[in-house]
Amino acid sequence: MTSDSGNSQMDILIVGGGMIGSALALGLSRQGWQVGLIEGATAAELVAPAAPATDVNAFEPRVSAISLASQRLLDELGAWRRVQDSRHCGYRQMTVWDGDGTGRIHFDAAELHASSLGTIVENRNIVRALFEELADSEVTLFDGVRVKAWHGRDGVELEDGRRLNAHLVVGADGAMSRLRQWSGLATREWDYDQQAIVCTVRTRQSHRYTAWQRFSPTGPLAFLPLLNEAGDDHFCSIVWSQDTLEAKRLMALDTEAFRQALGVAIEQQLGEVLEVSERFAFPLRQRHAKDYVTDGLALVGDAAHTIHPLAGQGANLGYGDVRALLEELARAKARNLAPDDALVLARYQRRRKGENLTMMAAMEGFKQLFARDELPVRWLRNTGMRWLNQLPMLKNRMAAEAMGITE
């Protein structure tokens, strides 16, 4: 990776060096494209090692449940081995239940002949691993600066006044993507009227390398297993999605009251919640770009779609975008086509829109199903969960789809 070398003309320019944008930059560089990557933070900040996690406040609140399919992509890019050198926790089981009923589903990696169902990783550790790998690449990095404007075929303008040009610009600049807004790519979106509370906790009992999720009418609560450097298996990252009024009430509680409320909400599955880190809350909104591409521009990750966190699939959908775009651009390279070829971009969009919309619709269906409190609906969903749990072939097929191991 080189810092800005004064070259303002590239094949592909990626805006946003987070988990998705940096992976795409690395993969495209390996294909031989001349790639530029723009990131608001500095490379030094992104590769700075995390302090050892001796307490709950040392963990990053933002984590991702990386599926085996996403792990394979990161492994192909050379970054997964670096992720494994940092804090991470593979989870072997998952238990999901209805807090207002008797329905329960249990997934076990052993039934799928896999070592894990996925891996919980702090987002910053994924970014660090990718930037460490980028250091040995030919990617030109424009760090510590943001994009001020996109001028279509005339390229992008940075806040420091520089102009950069590329055949293809890729927006990996997150849910509030300015590139998407500047390009006029319309979205379908709606507010869930929920907020997600995230923090890290330490529990009396081991998490048993299990992801726990309890549904209630006001929203789901997930306990995702973490490990520190010493291998302490009593830490979890929580994502507590609640209706806005309830989320605000919970955020207003003092630490002791919140700790007790959290233990009640998870039904003491891991014993007493002993410690709680600083809490953060953010509003939940589903958003999907009607088109992922336009003339000379493509969107990936949250810039193209955001999803409810109840199944932890946000990062995995983004990595699905990365894989599809890498494959289409590799095909373009082999045929001596430009990276902004309209048919190349159309194939990328066609491959990803259907899969992303299917996952988004499924998550919306789950949310609506568990938000209903009428007795017939409650009976139906609990009966369905018990029925599904007793059909291992169907249950494991669903798990394999989510893990990306159906190939």
Automatic annotation (TrEMBL):
Requisite cofactors: FAD
Family annotation (InterPro entries): FAD-bd (IPR002938), FAD/NAD-bd_sf (IPR036188), Ubi_Hdrlase_CS (IPR018168), UbiH/COQ6 (IPR010971), UbiH/COQ6_monooxygenase (IPR051205)
Pathway the protein contributes to: Cofactor biosynthesis; ubiquinone biosynthesis
Domain FAD-binding as annotated: residue spans: 10-352
Listed GO MF terms: monooxygenase activity
Family designation: Belongs to the UbiH/COQ6 family.
Name this polypeptide is given: FAD-dependent monooxygenase
